[in-house]
Design brief:
The termini are far apart. A seven-stranded antiparallel beta sheet has the order 1-7-6-5-4-3-2. The longest helix is centred in the C-terminal third of the chain and has 32 residues. β3 and β4 form a beta hairpin. The protein has four helices and seven strands. The protein is an alpha+beta fold.
């Protein structure tokens, strides 16, 4: 009752000449992707399996994690708490799909895609998430999600640049 939804979209330009395979390998490094989020306090993998016969043919693997975030309800960390939820990550040929089921009926369906695929440059990383929750919870979901995912994208770029430098140093 009184459910609402919003779409969160964040697009980040990738460094020029970044091989699409390198970006995809970072997207598929799930432990890294999870810990890039500054809200994550802990995580553990619950399961890993091919999600369907079609997924097996497309080489997609579904991994389920239990993740605990620390959430600040008041500025300056005057009231912090933790929330534990399950998240399914499906590594796909063209990126990463996520499905988060959090307490109080919060549902987040996300997709991370590399746009402008081609090793000549001009690529961007696009994250799109449809969030559904009770209308009263929306500010407690929307604000931390926007701010934490902006930091997540910045950290993603830092790691990607490090890996690209190692890749080029190894004869790319």
């Amino acid at each position: 009752m009184f459910r609402t939804s919003f779409t969160h979209t964040l697009t980040t330009p990738l460094p020029p000449q970044t091989p699409e395979s390198l970006t995809r390998s970072l997207l598929h490094d799930l432990d890294c992707m999870i810990t890039l989020n500054p809200l994550v306090q802990s995580h553990r993998r619950i399961s890993s399996h091919a999600s369907s016969e079609l997924a097996q043919k497309q080489s997609t693997i579904e991994n389920e994690y239990e993740i605990t975030d620390i959430i600040s309800y008041l500025p300056y960390h005057l009231w912090d708490s933790t929330v534990t939820y399950t998240a399914k990550f499906t590594c796909t040929v063209d990126g990463l799909d996520t499905l988060v089921a959090a307490p109080a009926g919060v549902l987040i369906e996300g997709a991370w895609r590399i746009i402008g695929i081609g090793d000549e440059g001009g690529q961007t990383l696009q994250e799109t998430a449809k969030v559904t929750c009770n209308w009263a919870l929306m500010p407690f979901v929307k604000v931390p999600m926007h701010s934490s995912h902006k930091i997540l994208h910045e950290r993603f770029l830092e790691i990607l640049k490090e890996r690209q430098n190692r890749h080029e140093g190894a004869g790319g």
